[in-house]
Amino acid sequence: MKILITATSLGADSPGPALERLRGFTAQSGGELAFNPLGKPLSEDELIPLLRDCDGYIAGLDFVTKKVIGSCEKLRVISRYGSGVDRVDLDAAGERNITVCNTPGANAQAVADLAIALALSAARKLPLLDRKTREGHWVRSTGIELYGKTMGILGLGAVGRGVAKRAQGFSMKVLAYDPYIDARYAEEHHITVSDFDTLIENAEVISLHLPLNDKTRRIISGEVMSRMKKGAILINTARGGLIDEGAAFEFLKQGHLGGLGIDAYEEEPPKESPLFALDNVVLTPHTAAHTAEATANMAAMAVQNLIDVLSGKPCPYTVRSEH
Question: How many domains does the chain have?
Answer without folding.
Answer: 2
